[in-house]
Amino acid sequence: MFNFFKKSQSQQSGVPKKRESLESLWRLTKILMENLEFEDVVYKTVNSLLNELGYLKSGYRIVVLSLVDEEAGGLRRIALSETEEARRATSVSTIPFERIVIPFSATQNLGIKVLMSGKPEVTTHWPDLLSPPLTAEAALTNQRSAGITTSMVYPVFARGKAIGTLIFSMVKKYQDVTEEEKDLLWGFTELIGLAVENSMLFTKLKNTSQQLTQANNKLQQLDQLKDDFVSVASHELRTPMTAIKSYAWMALNRADVDLSEKLKKYLVRVLMSTDRLINLVNDMLNISRIESGRIELLPEAVDLISLSKDIIDEVYYSKSIEKPIKFHLLEQSLPKVFADPNKLRQVFLNIVGNALKFSPPGGSIIIGFFTDGQSVETYIKDEGPGISKDDISRLFKKFGRLDNSYTATASSGGTGLGLFISKSLIDLMHGKIWAESEGVGKGATFKFSLPIATNELVEHADQYQIKPAGDIRELEPAAL
């Protein structure tokens, strides 16, 4: 695991001594790996050798960890052992410990020399360790205050690169340091390199995770503000637009006033424009409620044939005068589907409304079904302008209209929001929705499938309900 025996000059260490050193390093490994927080690791780094392995009894008094600081351009003091000698040295220092940075250019400093050579150094003269930034006189004052005789500087490696140094200061002479102690110090520095690197990576990852969490929370807040703004703005727009529509309708239909054809044309345009804007407001409100989770979903067994007839009657009687369209309902024996009837009605109205808008006068709209025993597929086929293959993927996206020109928008009165709302609702009901077309000019077929209302689903319908806390709103009616 460690190569410290290779770095020892001693060839006389016996097996018992090696075993004892390995056991000591194993204990240090367990201590340092208990926590990956950087601050905890560096604190344990400078204290574990003295306290856990009893090196205080062997004359060691101060351990200092320094790491490369590229931004500061030097070797920065990171951690200092908590001993009386260390406190005495820092109490008289002219520069606080945490502000001591040895510049890379100070090649005469033993810390920089060890960092560059990768080999340990020994000194009895603290100016070799602290100058610069401290003056020689200040460094000697620190040394005398601590009562230190000898200091050994070892490189700290990570992935084969020197990332810092460890200084071991003691009250005994270098000649009294045993080969076993040197062996253990080498192993200790290699262990520290691994522990410090892991803790730095862990702390960096943790900080990045916290930053991402904060950014995500901020985005959620902004998204909520957006939803709130859309909701408030939509409500504020709908009230005056409804009033404008009412006044325009009354002006157009007054029996006691003869209006010129030009004025009638203008009033019809006002009615059409207000209708489109009100529909847009309704769609924006619906999207806001769906995306913010403020709608209720109460699934039950729904008869698709009966619902289709209701939709056809509603659309036919409300739009047959404006645009004659033939509806063909292909009735067949079908199982009921498991869905929220009100939300499914919204989907039907959106798709049938689109078919009505894009079908030519006198055209046909076909509503049919298919079942595979697991789900029921509903399809609505029109004779409209069709959809190119490149455009189909954009259909169910927000504002996913195929032609964004003013002319197309004005003629059809749509924004693409209806299909986005339909997909959102079908997804909530655990179904699928898609569109097919043979190409431009060949009409389009919109399909959606929903699960069959089995006895098990109906009996446990409450498990599939969505009942959000707080403000619950029904969806605004779909535009036709």
UniProtKB/TrEMBL annotation:
Gene Ontology MF terms in the entry: phosphorelay sensor kinase activity
SUPFAM superfamilies referenced in this protein's UniProt entry, alphabetically: ATPase domain of HSP90 chaperone/DNA topoisomerase II/histidine kinase (SSF55874), GAF domain-like (SSF55781), Homodimeric domain of signal transducing histidine kinase (SSF47384)
Annotated catalysed reactions: ATP + protein L-histidine = ADP + protein N-phospho-L-histidine
Pfam families attached to this UniProt entry: GAF, HATPase_c, HisKA
Alphabetized UniProt keyword annotations: Kinase, Membrane, Phosphoprotein, Transferase, Two-component regulatory system
Histidine kinase domain ranges (all copies): 232-454
EC id: 2.7.13.3
Protein name: histidine kinase
Annotated source species: Candidatus Daviesbacteria bacterium RIFCSPLOWO2_01_FULL_39_12
